[in-house]
Amino acid sequence: MIRCDVAVIGAGTAGLAAERAARGAGARTVLIDPEFNGTLCALAGCMPSKLLIAAASAAHQVEQAPRFGVLPGPMRIDGPRVMTRLRAERDRFLSFTRESFDDLPEGTALVGRARFSAAQRLTLEDGREIEAGAIVIATGSRPVVPPPFRDLGPNVMTTDTLFELPDLPQRLAVIGAGPLGAELAQAMARLGVRVTLLDSGDAVAKARAPAVNAALGAALSEDLRLILGVETSAERLENGEIRVSWTGEDGRAGQDDFTHVLVATGRAPVLSGLELKASGIDLDEDGQPLFNRLTMQCGNTPVFMAGDVAADAPVLHEASSEGAIAGRNAAQFPKVDPFERHVFFTIAFTDPPSAAIGAAAKDAAISASADYGDQGRARVEGRARGVLCIHADPGGRLVGADLCAPGGEHLAHQLAWAVQSGATAAQLLDMPFYHPTLEEGMKTALREICRRSGTSEPPSRDVGSPSGS
To answer: Is 179 annotated as a binding residue?
Structure first.
């Protein structure tokens, strides 16, 4: 019998944060994982996708250079070199995570699959038993592949397999226009792949604001074929290609043949094999554990959740935060403290980037927008497009934002910090805005919020520069 204060199941981002937090609080810990292969972010998520986007950005810059009078000559994209660099850099990121496993105290890392045999007891597949004061479930998620795309061969991929391709596809269908699907579809298209992006819904990258959705959809449509509001089916042809068919409620129908299909319809929590009934925790109708997102505790039990398996906020910074909360509370169980969560914050690394922060327009008293279609700095750089929407309460305090604009990943951070700190539109306008920058563009929306909330703008400190340009 192995005895410890806290047992953590899963060595991804959330699990590592939970183990570290629990050990930092003085707990004896064990970390259980079947492979210790690294985090989802490094292996098949954030980092390899951004490496592909970086290659696509380089190709796009070459393609756009002539508009500035720069003539680089014919461009050739070497697909094998793109994918080789991607994997080399990805493996470098993975190595850092794997090295962190070596730094764990001796006996902490246990290789195997765990299942509950009681609320505070786990059994590994090799028969070893673990008795813990508290247990953190951080088993992550796996891609969901809808029935029409199952069993059609290796050319139907998920992000778990996409990055192992030796070369870029020739013709690619991307099923699912969520943030990752939109990112990868645009990146592939800019690398010379003929791409069709399909989704049953009407929103791209989960855009909440109609103006943002329209702007992002228009941008993507310049690079690829975008088909929304359709149901899809597929069949494997004798030559190994995949025929995808689609139909919409409005009578639209079509089909095309593709060398590859990327299914990006989301990920599901990995809960199978855990024998959750033995843990004593309550489950919802879908078999998902019920937990408090401020404590990550399941009911009043010594079981905690963290990361993608919690299906609450499946992004890396939230997984790390949830792991830390779960680990600290597991270490001090039965004492459990609530922790304030970060403001809701997501980014899709499309071009332009899109983001959602805090409350949506429907939950705010005031919503004002700024048009980036003719914004000064954006026009200088040849990327004047998009829109930024800022939402506020009746007194002008910022409560959320939605955007699709050049420099959006940086604008989104500034707005997320402002929302989380409780800043007002007037307070932001009193901050320095350098000229000419993309940040100046948000002044239009901030001034409109001041006007509609009846709050006074601070005295202008601009000297001769066009405000908001």
So the answer is: yes
Q: Where are the domains of the chain?
A: 2-142+268-332, 147-266, 352-453
| pLDDT tens by residue, 286-301 | 889 999 999 999 999 9
435 is catalytic: yes
Range 292-312 average pLDDT: 94
- 147-266 adopts what CATH topology? FAD/NAD(P)-binding domain (3.50.50)
- CATH H superfamily, domain 352-453: FAD/NAD-linked reductase, C-terminal dimerisation domain (3.30.390.30)
Distance CA 297, CA 336 (A): 8
Tell whether residue 382 is among the known ligand binding residues: no
256-259, long-range: CB < 8 A, 24+ apart: 256/171, 256/173, 256/196, 257/171, 258/169, 258/171, 258/172, 258/173, 258/196, 259/155, 259/169, 259/170, 259/171, 259/172
Amino acid at 323: G
Confidence (pTM): 0.94
What is the rounded distance in angstroms from the CA atom of residue 246 to the CA atom of residue 250?
Answer: 12
Instruction: Report whether 248 belongs to an annotated binding site.
Output: no
Give the whole-angstrom CA distance, residue 293 versus residue 340.
9
pLDDT at 123: 97
Omega of the bond prior to 269 within 30 degrees of 0, cis?
no
Return the residue matching tokens 């149901």.
Answer: 231
Strands 129-137 and 121-124: antiparallel
| Tens digits of residue pLDDT in 349-379 | 999 999 999 999 999 999 999 999 999 999 9
Is 108 marked within a binding site? no
Per the annotation, does 376 bind a ligand? no
- Residue 241, annotated as binding a ligand: no
The mean pLDDT value for 1-18 works out to 96
Homologous superfamily of 2-142+268-332 in CATH? FAD/NAD(P)-binding domain (3.50.50.60)
Domains 2-142+268-332 and 147-266 equal at CATH topology level: yes
The residue from 260, 317, 342, 435 that is catalytic is 435
